[in-house]
Amino acid sequence: MHANELGEVPVLMYHRIIDAPSSVYDRTPADFRAELERLAAEGYVPVTATDYVTGHLDIPAGTHPVVLTFDDGSATQLALDGTGQPVPGCAVRILLDVAAAHPGFRPVATFYVFNPPFEEPTGRTTLNWLHAHGFEIGDHTLDHANLRAASPAEVQHQLAGMQRIITDAVPGVAVRTMALPLGAYPRARNLAVDGAADGVTYHFDGVMLVGANPAPSPFSTDFDPSAVPRIRSQASAGEEAAFGSTAWLDRLAANPDLRYTSDGDPQRISAPRTAPQQPAPSVTDRVYRY
User: Fold this and answer.
1) What is the sign, positive or negative, of the torsion defined by CA atoms of 2, 56, 265, 92?
2) Where are the stretches annotated Disordered (predicted)?
3) Under 8 Å between Cβ of 222 and 277
4) Domain 11-289 = CATH 3.30.1490.100
5) How far apart are CA 27 and CA 123, in angstroms?
6) Three-state SS string across the chain, please?
7) Is 153's pLDDT higher than 70?
8) For a Cys staple, 49 with which of 72, 110, 183, 203, CB 3.0–4.6 Å?
9) What is the reported pLDDT for 268?
10) pLDDT tens, residue by residue, 178-188
11) Exposed, middle or buried by CB within 10 Å (0-12, 13-18, 19+), for 251?
């Protein structure tokens, strides 16, 4: 399989994993497991949102990065039993089980939480479990706020306040990416990246949008870390299914030259000469065209 490290990367967006979906944003545990099994079978390797936006894509040759993101911190994503293990049926348990069955499919994901995380008053137990097991924790504001309707002071209070809750729960953790509630930027877009409130300063390497299309390679001129498109996890039928994960994964499978395929060397960026994407000026000295 030819490498193309200027190709597209699916950044998948999940919300509740629930037996009886009531929204286009919900998936059943069976559907979620089936999507992960498909990703594993098609050679995708999960990476964190920070790995993606910073270009740290150290995955085996011939494989493709995928970013699994979870919004809102639902207990259907992570709940722990009396022994401190994820309960059957929650998203993390399913991800761990699929990874155990498919060597090379990493149990890695990024969780964008608001207050309280995973319906736990402080979030301390669940957030520490995630951090200890290699998952990323991101900011989704204190109250799932519509940042477009908020004043600059409130935008910063929402983002800095949630960062404080995360870092109070997990001392020393770096909160490096955020997801925009409702996909809405603040009127001053820079405040989605940098700001300060109540004695807390924040800076995000990446800002996640709501469901759309595959994201560009972090090495291409199309890449904007402050506006990362995500694909809503969704079956092939139903409202807006043409924009959901099944449709986009079908498209990438049918057109493998479009997707990011690793050359196995994290220091080199390989792409065919015919690839339409252009490398960003900052990485041209690492590019190998064939």
Assistant:
1) negative
2) 259-290
3) yes
4) no
5) 24
6) CCCECCCEECEEEECCECCCCCCCCCECHHHHHHHHHHHHHCCEEEECHHHHHCCCCCCCCCCEEEEEEEECCCCCCCCECCCCCECCCCHHHHHHHHHHHCCCCCCCCEEEECCCHHHCCCCHHHHHHHHHCCCEEEECCCCCCCHHHCCHHHHHHHHHHHHHHHHHHCCCCCCCEEECHHHCCCCCHHHHCEEEECCEEEECCEEEEEECCCECCCCECCCCCCCEEEEECCCCCCCCHHHEHHHHHHHHHHCHHHECECCCCCCCEEECCCCCCCECHHHHHHEEEC
7) yes
8) 110
9) 97
10) 999 999 999 99
11) middle
Query: ∠ CA(142), CA(209), CA(223), 5° rounding?
Result: 130
The C-alpha atoms of residue 8 and residue 217 are separated, in whole angstroms, by: 5
Distance CA 270, CA 139 (A): 33
Q: ω before 216 within 30° of 0 (cis)?
A: no
**Model confidence band, residue 243 (pLDDT cutoffs 50, 70, 90):** confident
| Residues whose CB falls within 8 Å of the CB of residue 151, separated by 6 or more in sequence, listed in order | none
Give the percent of the chain with pLDDT over 70: 98
What residue type is 118 in one-letter code? F
* pLDDT at residue 1, as a whole number: 63
Please, which residues have CB within 8 angstroms of residue 58's CB and are 6 or more apart in sequence? 266
Residue keyed to tokens 């064939």? 290
* 84-93 pLDDT, tens digit each: 999 999 999 9
Amino acid at 205: D
Average pLDDT estimate for 45-56: 98
Rg (CA), the chain: 18
pTM, entire model: 0.97
